[in-house]
Amino acid sequence: MSVLRLTRLTVDADRADEMLARRAALIEAVRGMTDGLTDTRLARVDEETWLDVWRWESGEALDEVAATAPGLPVAQAAFAVVRDAQVERYDLVDER
Q1: What is the pTM of this model?
Q2: Nearest to residue 16, comparing CAs of 39, 59, 38, 45?
């Protein structure tokens, strides 16, 4: 079953481009670790609030990466520009 990991985060408006570049580097690094990340989506709520949704082929694939990725320098760099990150995980039940 596919799993969604949603991160609601805050970034200073003047650092949005930096966040986007660091996020892209993080996605590239994670995809180098696993085939389990199937797609990512980023939405802007307002000037400083973003929703970042990563879709995983399974909970196991997410768990495997989540166990090691936070220690990666690229992950630490990505989250260094973020405030108030709130992470939620969902099992994808229906898709039409």
Answers
A1: 0.94
A2: 45
